Amino acid sequence: MKTRLLAAAAPLVVAATMVSGCASMPAEAETEAPASASAVPAYSGPFAQESTLPFHAPDFSTIKDSDYQPALEAGIAAKRAEIEAIADNPEPPTFDNTVVAMERAGALLSRVENVFDQLVSANTNATLDAVDTATSPKLEALKDRIYLNDKLFQRVKAVRDSAEGKALTGEDAMLLETTYAKFVHRGAELDQAQKAQLKDMNLRIAALETEFSQKLTAGTDAAAVTFDSKDQLAGLSDADIAAAAKRAADRGMAGKYVLALSNTTQQPALSQLSNRDSRKKLFEASVNRTSHGGEYDTTAIVSELATLRAKKAKLLGLPDFATFQMYDRMVTSPKKAQEFLNGFVPPLGATQSREAAILADAAKADGIARLEPWDWGYYAEKVRKAKYDLDDAQIKPYFNVWNTLENGVFYAATQTYGITFKRRTDIPVYHPSMRVYEVYDKDGSPLALFYFDPYARPNKQGGAWMGNFVEQSYLTGDKPVVHNTLNIAPPVDGQEPLATWDDVTTMFHEFGHALHGIFASQKYPSLSGTETARDFVEFPSQFNENFATVPAVLQHFAKNAAGETIPDALMKKIEAAAKWNQGLSFGETLEAAMLDMDWHTLDPQQASQPPMAFEAKVLDSMKANGLETGLIPPRYRTPYFRHIWSNGYQAGYYSYIWTEMLAHDGWDWVEKHGGMTRANGDHIRATFLGQGHSKDYAVMYRNFTGHDPDLNPMLAARGLTAPGE
Ligand SMILES: [Zn+2]
C-alpha cells in the first residue's frame, strides 16, 4: 500500500549540509591580512578532538550547553585559517593540494555543528537559541570567505582546466565538478563590488531565516488552543483528552484543556472533534498563528526575505531565485518542475470535486448547509469510517513504537540488506527517551551507529528528520553516526507508547534516509550518503516506506500487547482507506509545492508585495485551474511555511512529489523483480542507496530500474483518476 500522506510531505532531512560550509566574521575589508595559523585561538573544549566513544559518537555525558559557542567560534576560525592556507599555498595547484584539501578542512567545525544543529532543532533552550542567533551569520560569512575567495577559485579553476583535472574519473571527477559549480553558484565570477553586495545580502538572509524559525516555533506554541470544558473536545479519545488536560495543567491552567498546534494547516484533532465551533477555533488558530499582527507575525520577515532572494538571483545574472536554487538538482529548471506539478492538476481537481460533493452530503445530515475547510477532515474521517469501518483507536494498539522500530523497520532492512542491529545502552544520549543501536554489515562487521528520538516535546521542532552526528568518509576514516527524530505523541502516565499509522509510515520514511547515511561508502564527505540534491534525497526515504506494508514485514511487527497480529481484514481496510481523501492529502501538498515555486519565480518588485495579498492571488489562480483551494488550503500557508523560509527547501518543496514518483516507480521495479529479496537489496545498495552523490542522479536511477522515471505507478498508487474516468 502507498500511503504517503503525512509521511511524504511532513518529514524532512536535516542532513549535515554544513560539511562543505565554513569560515568566519561578517564581511570585512578585502585588504585584511590573511589569517595565519597563529591567529587561530587555542581551543581545548570537548570538541577539540574526535570523541573517544565508539564511532566517535558525541559524548553527551560531558558536553554542556556552554560548550557550543566557544567550539563553534574556534571551529569557524580554524576552518578559515585552513582554507586560507590552501588559497595561499605557494605550490602550483593540484587536485590534492586544492580540491581534496578543501574536503579535509573544517574537521572541528563539522564535529560541533553536526551535534549543535541537532540539539537546537530537537531539544533546544534559550541558551542554544542564543548561540544559534549569534553564530549563524558567522557561518554564512565563512561560506562567503571560501566561495568568494578569488585566489582559491582561481586554483580550483586551474585544476579543472589542467590535464590532471580533465583526466579525473569517478568520484574524483564528481568532486571537482561539484566544487567548481558551488563556487560559481556562490558568486565566484562576480566583480569585487558585486561580491561585497552579495556578502551583505547573504548575512541578512541568514539572519532573517533564523528569526523566522524562532518566531514560528514560539508562535506555534503560543497559538495552542485552550478549551474550558471537556464537552468541547467531544470526539477525541480519552487519552488525547487526558493529554490536553495535562498540557493545560503544565501551563498553569488546571481544569482546562489545551490542544497544541502541529506544523501543518490541518490539525490531527480536526478529523475527530464533533463540536463544529471547536473545529473552527482550532483551524483558525492554525492558519492565523503567525500572521495578523502581534509578536509572532512573520509576514514582514517573509516579505524582506523573498525580495532579497529575488535580488540575489538578479545580481548573479539569473532570472529568479528558483533558477539559482536548482543549479544542482535532478530537475534542471523551474519550468520543468512547474510542468511536472501542473500535470497533476486535472486528475487532482476532478478527485477534489468528487470528494467535496460526498463530504457536503455527509455534512448536510448534520444540518451544515455549507462545507468549510474546518469540516473537511471531520467529514472525510466520518465517510472513511462509514466506507471502511476504520478507526485510529482500532489500529494504534498494533503499533507499539519500539516494536515497530525493532521488529518492523529494522526487520525489513535485515531481510533486504542483510544488516543487523544491537541495542547499546552504554552510549550517552541528549534525552532519556532515546535509544541507540549499533548496525552491523551483512558480513558481521561494524557499519554504523543509529539514534532514535521518537517523542514530541515543546522544545522540539515539528515534523520528522534525519541527520548525521558523524559523516562517513574514507578520506577521514569515519563511519556514519546517524539519527532519526520524530514527533510521536508521548505515552501518558506509563502507558504503552503507541504510533498512528502515519507515525509508522514516517518511521519507515526516516529510516530510508538513515539507510542512505548508513550505507554511505564515499571517499569525500561532501559526496557522502545523503549529501545529494533536494529532489533526490527524498527518494530513498519514500522508497523505504513501501516496506511497511510488505505482508512478511507487517505481520512481523504489527502486534498488540496480547501478541495478536493485526487482522488481515483491518490491514486491507487501511490500504483501501489510504486512497480515500487524496483531494486533501495530496491536494494540500501539491498546492504548497506550487506556492513555493510561485514565491521563488518572482522578480524583486513582485516579491516585495504584501505576502498575504500575493498568496491570495496564487490561490485564486489555482482555483481557476480547477483546484478547491477554498476548502483545501495549502499544507503550509506562507507565514508558517518553515520548509521554504528557514529549512532550505525554497524552490524545492516539489521535491517530495518528484521523489515520490521515483519511489513508486522504483518499487514497481522491485515488485516486478521478485519483491523484497536479498539479491534486490544488494542491487539497490549498489545502484543508489550506497552511492551518495558519486554519480549523476539520472544515471543512478537508470542503473537501478533500467529506465527513466515514469509517473504512472504514482497515479495508480494514489488512486488519482483522470477527468471522466
Ligand atoms: Zn524525508
From TrEMBL:
Residue ranges annotated for the Peptidase M3A/M3B catalytic domain, each copy included: 270-719
Example GO BP: proteolysis
Cofactor descriptive note: Binds 1 zinc ion.
Keywords: Carboxypeptidase, Hydrolase, Metal-binding, Metalloprotease, Protease, Signal, Zinc
InterPro entries given in the database record: M3A_DCP, MetalloPept_cat_dom_sf, Neurolysin/TOP_dom2, Pept_M3A_M3B, Pept_M3A_M3B_dom
Family annotation (PROSITE patterns): PROKAR_LIPOPROTEIN
Superkingdom per UniProt: Bacteria
A Pfam short name: Peptidase_M3
Entry cofactors: Zn(2+)
Signal peptide span: 1-29
GO (cellular component) term, any one: cytosol
Molecular function via GO: carboxypeptidase activity; metal ion binding; metalloendopeptidase activity
Family listed: Belongs to the peptidase M3 family.
Protein known as: Dipeptidyl carboxypeptidase II
Source organism of the structure: Novosphingobium malaysiense
Lineage: Bacteria, Pseudomonadati, Pseudomonadota, Alphaproteobacteria, Sphingomonadales
